[in-house]
Specification:
This protein has two domains: 5-124 and 290-308, Rossmann fold, CATH 3.40.50.720; 127-287 and 318-343, Dihydrodipicolinate Reductase, domain 2, CATH 3.30.360. The protein contains ten helices and 15 strands. Helix 6 packs across helix 7 (166-182) and helix 7 (166-182) crosses helix 9 (311-329). By secondary structure, it is an alpha/beta fold. The longest helix is centred in the last third of the chain and has 19 residues, at 311-329. Helices cover 35% and strands 27% of the residues. It has helices at residues 16-25, 39-48, 58-62, 76-88, 103-116, 130-141, 166-182, 289-303, 311-329, 339-343, and strands spanning 5-10, 29-35, 54-55, 69-72, 92-96, 120-123, 147-155, 188-194, 204-210, 216-222, 229-236, 240-244, 252-262, 271-280, 335-336. The strands form two sheets. It has a nine-stranded mixed sheet. The protein is globular.
């Protein structure tokens, strides 16, 4: 048997317990530590996993020569210093989304990981969701034709965050999904929104993204909605697709719908032919995305392969969020993404 990859979980708050559960269940992983600054959080971890050592001392974790990788699930403001220290200590790093609070911090982590030959992966969990992967497969097969535009809604009632806008809270999911599907980052972002409940913290935002290929996309993100929506529409030149993550069974549906344009032979009106065909819902396996994500990180640490959601992918999302926030703060002005974000995918 291979020697288990020894992993430390840093942060046992909202999302940390889910990461701990999945890494604990991997047969080729040994959870060496759970680290959190709050003793009460560590008590919860020990009640469920009494054999796992816990500590409030991050230096103790990073100084342990047996720790191969550090999984970070702490507040955004702490991502950069913790990840930086872990990479400098020679550990592979998995870091929850968003990767950092700004693009400069993300660049520093990416460059350090490359210099040290370490894996840096970001927790864009939806990229590992079987329905999202199925849509990627459908797009790459050419079944939809050329992609015209994408619209996505991620709205619900709560949970309001006290330190970030709805852009930084909800939009990372859809941005990472779009970039994964399209294989490119947006070159410009325009965002409008409003602070409805808490002053200076926008709780509704409408993002418009323009891609180098010509694709345009809109992301609606809100903490103020009477219903929970997780719906994305992809419109292509041949077919259209709906991905609805709130559906229990048929999460992906392909519509053989479209409009065909015929050039007029004379000065008469142009002709449009509307097509309404079959609706097909492909079979999709039911596997927890977080388990697939954790397995992928472990495999990349072992094999040396580049993670699907590597540091460059994380940098692109952070740069997009930063541009969206800048647009929001400047009354909806269009903001171009920085050069390094566009170059990252090249």
């Amino acid at each position: 048997m291979e020697t288990p990859l020894r992993v430390a979980i840093v942060g046992h708050g909202y999302w940390g317990p889910n990461l701990l559960r999945n890494y604990f269940d991997l047969s080729d992983v040994w959870v060496s530590w759970v680290c959190d600054s709050r003793p009460e959080a560590l008590e919860k971890a020990q009640r469920r996993y009494p054999a796992v050592p816990v500590t409030t001392d991050l230096d103790r974790v990073l100084g342990d020569p047996d720790v191969d990788a550090v999984v970070i699930a702490t507040p955004i403001s702490t991502h950069h210093p913790i990840a930086l220290a872990a990479l400098e200590a020679g550990k592979h790093v998995f870091i929850e989304k968003p990767m950092t609070a700004d693009t400069q911090q993300a660049c520093e982590l990416v460059e350090l990981a490359e210099d040290r030959g370490l894996k840096l992966m970001v927790g864009h969990t939806f990229v590992f969701s079987p329905p999202v992967r199925k849509v990627k497969e459908i797009i790459e097969s050419g079944a939809l034709g050329d992609i015209y535009f994408v619209t996505t809604q991620r709205v619900n009632l709560g949970l309001h965050q006290k330190d970030v806008s709805v852009v930084w809270d909800l939009a990372p999911h859809d941005i990472s999904i779009l970039y994964y599907w399209l294989g490119e980052a947006a070159q410009a972002v325009t965002t409008t929104g409003r602070c409805c409940i808490v002053k200076d913290i926008p709780d509704v935002a409408f993002m418009n993204l323009r891609f180098p290929s010509g694709v345009v996309a809109e992301i609606q993100a809100s903490w103020l909605s009477p219903v929970k929506l997780r719906r994305t529409i992809v419109v292509g030149s041949r077919k259209m697709l709906v991905y609805d993550d709130t559906e229990n069974v048929e999460k992906v549906k392909i519509f053989d719908h479209g409009v065909d344009f015929e050039e007029p032979e004379d000065f008469g009106e142009f002709q449009l032919s509307y097509r309404t065909g079959d609706i097909v819902s492909p079979k999709i396996q039911g596997v927890e995305p977080l388990f697939l994500e954790a397995s992928h990180f472990v495999e990349c640490c072992r094999s040396g392969a580049t993670p699907i959601t590597d540091g460059w992918a994380g940098l692109q999302v952070v740069a997009s969020l930063e541009a969206a926030q800048a647009s929001l703060d400047n009354g909806g002005a269009g903001i171009d993404l920085p050069e390094q974000a566009l170059r990252a995918r090249a």
